[in-house]
């Protein structure tokens, strides 16, 4: 009996050892999984690891503690569609097709506007987008399944994403109805979209654990409608001064919010909790060591629906919010965890932007980086070879709405702004040195004539005329 028991135990131990070796070998040979978590309207200062003192974000803070935190990272634009378009295509808004929000604006059919999803597919990845569509405002040709994503679940229209209780969403190209949600009538209901997105993401990770995958988790939090589940909101009830918000007229789709400060804090903590759930799923499935997790936001904090960004210092030390090209509207948190490659507890001041994500992921997937894009791979920064990191000559943004246009350019520590009234033709400029004026409060336009001429010339060269007439300056 002892001999048989010994043999059986030995056989069991050997089998487990072989399985462990096989798993380790697979982890080394298989390309790393990539999860890109994109928040919606989360400010640079909304996270504890970026200085937030009132809102609890332990899971994202831990992500930063285990990876690299970037302090000079920029969104693609100051509103969602062009910002996400820059992320998808590697082009800044001076060259991109989508340069503004608007119905019917979406990425065009391939081979135009090739996305990061398409390049990762070519690199052997299964690709998914879950949450708010990042391929346009009201997608038809730009529907995610047509633009490099094998699987899609979420909002197609960005206007629809103003509510967390939609009447319908899409799984791939099939519409899924939620008849017990209020839609535009009450903007409330029974089915909370963020619950569905998290369930889909966790299931996707488990289903694809045997092959390299790219998951873009495009959370709607903490965008627009100010609402959070009670279990998150109770943490902040009666802790802040409040100014109730009652949506009326054009703002009725935001609903009514009696405690907007507590609710916004709860929304951000809910987002943080979701990040924790995703990280726990990776650990549970043994995928944590071979998965890159990136986290960012599509632009600065909004001020609709009762949200007051100044209360939480959501823009950090910077001036401006969503729809501004001041730092607060476009500088965003960016965190990368990559076990065995990215050194934990590191901070990078490398100047980077959304259009760098596509070439970086192409580097990771070992596919050719496309030509004629504006992005530069930040892979050398991630793997500790910052001395080999190529740098941008400048970063450029533009934003146009109705008869007002604005453009901005950053070169080194210099930040240059142009403001245009496209109806009257009136133009004005502002110039700041971010090295000693990160709040952009000391306009040097009359004191630095040579610098103004230099940056004005760069700005003109960064712009190419848009195919869409409404975007032309």
Question: What do you see in this structure?
Answer:
The N terminus is likely disordered. The chain folds into 2 domains: 362 residues, 3-Layer(aba) Sandwich (Alkaline Phosphatase, subunit A); 75 residues, Arylsulfatase, C-terminal domain (2-Layer Sandwich), CATH 3.30.1120.10. 29% of the residues lie in helices and 19% in strands. β16 and β17 form a beta hairpin. The longest helix has 28 residues. It is α/β, with parallel strands linked by helices. The protein is globular and about 55 Å long.
Task: Please summarize what this structure is.
This protein has 473 residues and is an alpha/beta fold. It is built from 13 helices and 18 strands.
Key structural traits:
Alkaline Phosphatase, subunit A, 2 domains, 13 helices, disordered N terminus, Arylsulfatase, C-terminal domain, alpha/beta, 29% helix, ten-stranded mixed sheet, 473 residues, four-stranded antiparallel sheet, single chain
């Amino acid at each position: 009996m002892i001999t048989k028991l010994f043999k059986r135990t030995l056989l069991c131990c050997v089998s487990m050892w072989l399985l462990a070796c096989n798993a380790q070998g697979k982890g080394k040979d298989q390309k790393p999984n990539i999860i890109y978590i994109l928040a919606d309207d989360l400010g640079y200062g909304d996270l504890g690891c970026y200085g937030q003192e009132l809102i609890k974000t332990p899971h994202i803070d831990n992500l930063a503690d285990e990876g690299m935190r970037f302090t000079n990272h920029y969104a693609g634009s100051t509103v969602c569609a062009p910002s996400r378009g820059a992320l998808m295509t590697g082009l800044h808004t001076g060259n991109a097709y989508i340069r503004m929000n608007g119905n019917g604006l979406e990425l065009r059919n391939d081979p135009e506007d090739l996305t990061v999803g398409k390049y990762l597919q070519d690199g052997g990845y299964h690709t998914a987008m879950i949450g708010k569509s990042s391929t346009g405002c009201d997608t038809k040709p730009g529907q995610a399944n047509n633009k490099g994503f094998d699987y899609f679940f979420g909002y197609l229209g960005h206007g629809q994403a103003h509510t967390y209780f939609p009447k319908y969403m899409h799984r791939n190209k099939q519409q899924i109805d939620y008849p017990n949600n209020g839609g535009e009538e009450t903007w409330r209901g029974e089915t909370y979209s963020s619950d569905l997105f998290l369930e889909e993401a966790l299931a996707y990770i488990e289903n694809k654990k045997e092959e390299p995958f790219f998951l873009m988790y495009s959370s709607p939090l903490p965008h627009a409608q100010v609402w959070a589940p009670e279990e998150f909101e109770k943490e902040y009830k009666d802790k802040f001064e409040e100014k109730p918000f009652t949506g009326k007229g054009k703002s009725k789709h935001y609903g009514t919010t009696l405690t907007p400060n507590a609710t916004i804090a709860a929304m951000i903590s809910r987002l943080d909790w979701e990040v924790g759930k995703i990280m726990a799923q990776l650990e549970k499935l043994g995928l944590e060591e071979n998965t890159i997790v990136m986290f960012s936001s599509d632009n600065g904090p909004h001020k609709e629906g009762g949200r007051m960004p100044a209360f939480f210092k959501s823009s950090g030390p910077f001036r401006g919010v969503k729809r501004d090209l001041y730092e607060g509207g476009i500088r965003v948190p960016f965190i990368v965890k990559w076990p065995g490659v990215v050194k934990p507890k590191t901070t990078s001041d490398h100047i980077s932007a959304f259009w760098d994500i596509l070439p970086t992921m192409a580097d990771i997937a070992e596919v050719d980086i496309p030509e004629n894009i504006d992005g530069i791979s930040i892979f050398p920064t991630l793997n500790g070879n910052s001395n080999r990191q190529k740098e941008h000559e400048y970063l450029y943004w533009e934003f146009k709405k109705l008869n007002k246009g604005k453009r901005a350019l950053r070169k080194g520590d210099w930040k240059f702004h142009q403001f245009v009234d496209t109806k009257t033709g009136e133009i004005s400029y502002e110039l700041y040195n971010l090295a000693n004026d990160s709040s952009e409060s000391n306009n040097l336009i009359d004191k630095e004539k040579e610098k103004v001429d230099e940056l004005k010339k760069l700005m003109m060269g960064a712009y190419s005329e848009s195919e869409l007439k409404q975007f032309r300056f």
